[in-house]
Specification:
Shape: globular
Distance between the termini: 89 Å
Number of helices: 14
CATH class of the largest domain: Alpha Beta
CATH architecture of the largest domain: Alpha-Beta Complex
Radius of gyration: 29 Å
Oligomer: single chain
Helix content: 25-40%
Number of strands: 16
Number of domains: 2
Strand content: 15-25%
């Protein structure tokens, strides 16, 4: 064996005569060494991230529930750039007016809602989420500058209203680079024929969200909260969530113009800001944590007990004279991150708020429970732009009378007038 090794070492040919080994010369060894040395030098200069095991224990600024978590060091994540943090103390105006029972909530956490039908235009093939994935999950790019989803509270029998909306403002799916989608929220039905009709409608249009709950007006709170849950679980946090009703006609181009005028120009995660509240709660987010009311903002609406005689338990608890400032249900919007916060708060909030006040529950009571002060809810401003108009006389189904036909004609006229400006 020793003689064989000595013979191999002294071999000067490119290949051995009695084997399949190839001789490696000094040049072949030197080239890989130079490549490895160069790659290591580049990694040190660029300060590339370590492995996941090293990142996961990175210290977090502060554990704030339901809000984006932010790492101190941005070297591990290129989308978290270091900027000077903005500190702002919020004045929780009127927080003491919220009854203690509602403010503290319940110790029991309510279960999450389940959904039978989901909108294919959002999370299906060729949906808005897939478009965002193709773009690389970035906030803005060539495919879309942002995402805005309208959730219209509807009901199973309201087919005529959904048809009208699809032919008008829900037909806009893109405006100035923004991707826009409309989702109709309905509840459970025990009639097999009605359920089959809803499934066929969902298959045809791909814009129905059906939660497994009460579809009647008495279930309005659950229907809206189930919408907040689904949006916070499915939509990216840099999208916008808007709530409206199926009797509303929306000026969609004006709404998108309003959203872009409010944007700071910085993408989420790019410029995190830190807000310190009076009670010590800290919110870390780069997004505007404001609910914008584009129909009406009720600032000092009197709490009239006579309107809620049927809800004695609520009357016994709500011992104040005013409602907290809240948006009317016609149209209001917020970032998806805030919608998720409000839903999480609702899981420990008592189910005693009258269903007719579902918008007050979300934009008023839950907002205050989430420690978003009354300067975190805004009206449409001093501009004279009309963002929404109601047409309550619209027919629910195909059985239309004179009043519903007149309302439908006015709705189409309003839509044509709005679109003529864009």
């Amino acid at each position: 064996m020793d003689k064989l090794l000595e013979w191999c070492i002294n071999c000067h040919g490119d290949e051995m005569k009695h084997g399949f080994f190839t001789r490696i010369g000094p040049k072949e060894v030197l080239v890989p060494m130079i490549v490895l040395f160069s790659v290591g030098t580049v990694c040190i200069i660029l300060n590339l991230p370590p492995t996941f095991e090293e990142v996961k224990d990175t210290e977090i600024i502060e554990k704030t529930p339901n809000i984006l978590r932010f790492h101190k060091s941005s070297r591990y994540f290129p989308f978290m750039l270091q900027h000077e943090e903005k500190f702002e103390k919020f004045n929780l105006v009127g927080l003491k007016a919220l009854p203690e029972f509602l403010d503290k909530g319940s110790h029991n956490t309510k279960p999450r809602y389940t959904h039978k039908l989901q909108p294919r235009r959002i999370n299906g093939y060729n949906g808005i989420l897939q478009l965002r994935d193709i773009q690389g999950n970035s906030w803005a790019g060539k495919l879309l500058k942002g995402g805005f989803v309208f959730f219209a509270q509807s009901a199973g029998p309201n087919l005529a209203r959904r048809r009208l909306i699809r032919e008008t403002w829900a037909s806009i799916h893109e405006h100035k680079g923004w991707r826009i989608e409309t989702v109709f929220v309905v509840g459970r039905t025990t009639n097999e024929n009605e359920q089959r009709d809803l499934e066929n409608e969902s298959l045809q249009f791909g814009d129905l969200l059906q939660y497994d709950g009460n579809d009647r007006p008495s279930g309005a709170n659950d229907k809206l909260l189930s919408t907040l849950q689904w949006a916070s679980e499915v939509l990216p946090r840099d999208f916008f969530f808007a709530s409206t009703m199926d009797y509303a006609m929306l000026n969609v181009p004006a709404v998108i113009h309003k959203v872009t005028s409010l944007a700071s120009g910085y993408a989420p995660y790019e410029r995190p800001e830190r807000y310190l509240l009076q009670n010590g709660v800290s919110i870390v987010s780069s997004q505007d944590q404001t609910i914008h009311c584009l129909e009406w903002l009720h600032k000092n609406r009197t709490f009239v007990k006579e309107h809620f005689i049927r809800y004695q338990q609520f009357l016994e608890i709500y011992k104040v004279d005013l409602w907290p400032p809240y948006c009317s249900p016609g149209l209001y919007f917020m970032p998806v991150s805030l919608a998720g916060v409000l839903y999480d708060i609702s899981r420990t909030t008592s189910d005693i708020v009258p269903p007719s006040m579902h918008s007050a529950l979300v934009s008023g009571i839950l907002r205050r429970k989430a420690r978003r002060a009354d300067n975190n809810i805004a009206d449409k401003g001093r501009n004279k732009v009309t963002y929404v108009e109601r047409f309550r006389s619209l027919a629910f189904g195909d059985n239309k009378n004179y009043a519903s036909l007149e309302a439908e004609y006015e709705a189409y006229s309003t839509w044509r007038e709005w679109t003529s400006y864009f």
